[in-house]
Amino acid sequence: MFKQAKQGAISVISGSVPLSGDALDSLDSAFADCLREGQPHAVLDLRNTPLIDSAGLERLLELRDRFQKRTGVLKLAGANPLCQDILSVTGVGLQFEVFPEVSQAVGSFIQ
Q1: What global pTM score does this model have?
Q2: Tens digits of residue pLDDT in 22-32
Q3: Would you state the torsion angle of the CA atoms of residues 102, 106, 108, 111, taken in this order, to the nearest 10 degrees?
Q4: How would CATH label the architecture of 2-108?
């Protein structure tokens, strides 16, 4: 459901299923290796994610907290208009750096 790729030292997690229900276990598995790193840096590519429900929003916040405890950073990128609205209306988007493209999010770690 979700897969991890590396762009330099940055992990990029992507999937094409809603962030909800059983998919959240797959999301956790995709982030597991990244979170074992000393100071994890990752981008969640939402380009092909059709929907984020309340459980998905909670999981995003939990992941953010796990990254912060390890002095790491999780950024979001490529959300479609519906997911952008969900992140905006709920205020969850304010808890992350959000970028229109994965390449911009990955590049932001260098600056």
Answers
A1: 0.95
A2: 899 999 999 99
A3: -150
A4: 2-Layer Sandwich (3.30)
